[in-house]
Amino acid sequence: MVNFYVKIVIIKKKVHKIGSDKVLFRKDFKEVKKLVLDYLIISLGCFLYAVSIVLFAEPNDLAPGGISGLCIVIKSLTGFPVGTASTLINLPLFVIAYKKSGISFFLKTLYATLFGNFLIDLTKFYISQAGLEYKGELFIASVLSGAMAGIGLGLIFMRGGTAGGVDIIASLVSDARPHISIGKVILFLDGIVILISAFVFKIENAFYACVCVYVMSKVVDGVMYGSNIGVGKVIFIISEKSQEISSRIITEFSRGVTELKSCGSYTRREGEVLLCAVRRYELYKIYSLVYSIDPQSFLIVTDTKEITGEGFKQFSDKKRK
Fold first, then answer.
1. I want to staple 274 with a disulfide (CB 3.0 to 4.6 A). Which of 19, 32, 85, 237 is the partner?
2. Which contacts of 195-204 are long-range, i.e. CB under 8 A and separated by 24 or more positions?
């Protein structure tokens, strides 16, 4: 009888272990799937950005800010390839990205920068051989280059990376000052590069480079934040691990979390409902975080017409009056 009881206990332990292994496998599979999707989208963003440089910007002597714009100026003076020069200049910034951020941000930035610069030189060869470079109206070239580059950079930013250069600085500034959009930071930093390019190319080219950067910054904000930086999502989170989830959201996303006291109507169990306002591009990251902590959690997501305050749209003088 005792032996029979012992066997039952052993079987139960094995079944429990198998069940735990299955849960861990599903969790690991979801994380791997998310990671693969991140790098696929980052790769697409790199491709769009590279094509915008090779197809529209470089052939028309447009230096649309950033390290790539600076490298276009360098190539016009020395003939040094844009992608290779960009990689060399970005090396010190990789150290900053590694020290100032987590390993995930660093690896994605490293991949996006190296792969993006590789694509610039690669697509340059094939596009030049095929004679597909656009050499025409500077206005058309600046708008198309800015729009394509903006989509590419927006996709990279959304998946937690940057394309290196001033993008690293812009991303770090945005993390420290969430109310300042990444697009506006890039617009300021790129202006410095454009001033340098004005002395190498014609003033007309520098002017249209400004148009390119303006379009790019607007498209980046559009991809990441929507048409209005004050528009976002509100998430209600119900979980037995609300304290851990709240702490992780605050530390990893720099977002405020409000605890609402709750009581289940059926169970009469008291607890907390977490309320958190986020930007659209942050939503999938919050999803991943919450379900990695508590797969049994319950989330409600709603659209908001406007979110005003720190990290979103700031109060205007008219509204204060």
1. 237
2. 196/63, 196/70, 196/73, 197/63, 197/69, 197/72, 197/73, 200/63, 200/73, 200/76, 200/77, 201/61, 201/63, 201/73, 201/76, 202/61, 204/138
For residue 277, give the nearest of 245, 309, 239 by alpha carbon.
309
Rounded Cα distance, 247 and 238, in Å: 14
**Are residues 46 and 161 in contact, defined by beta-carbon separation less than 8 angstroms?**
no
| Cα angle: 61, vertex 163, 95; to 5 degrees | 120
Query: Residue 244 belongs to what H/E stretch?
Result: helix 242-253
What span, in angstroms and rounded, lies between the C-alpha atoms of 120 and 202? 24
SS3 169: helix
Antiparallel, parallel or unpaired: β 270-278 and 298-303: unpaired
Please answer whether residues 51 and 130 qualify as being in contact, where contact means their C-beta atoms are separated by less than 8 angstroms: no
Tokens representing 308 are: 């005003």
Residue type at 1 in one-letter notation: M
Q: Could you give the domains of the chain? A: 32-225 (no CATH), 233-320 (3.30.70.120)
- Predicted confidence (pLDDT) at residue 321 exceeds the cutoff of 50: no
pLDDT given at position 171: 64
3-state secondary structure of 267: coil
For residue 184, how many other CB atoms are within 10 A of its CB?
A: 16
Q: How far apart are CA 159 and CA 45, in angstroms?
A: 10
| pLDDT higher than 70, residue 235 | yes
CA-closest candidate to residue 278, choices 196, 133, 194, 158: 158
Measure CA of the first residue to CA of the last residue in the chain; give whole Å: 83
Q: Is 188 exposed, middle or buried (0-12, 13-18, 19+ CB in 10 A)?
A: middle
Of 310 and 188, more confident: 188
Greater model confidence, 177 or 66 = 66
Alpha-helical regions (H) of the chain: 2-51, 66-78, 82-100, 103-130, 138-158, 166-176, 182-198, 203-225, 242-253, 283-293, 317-320
Round to whole Å and give the CA distance between 61 and 80: 15
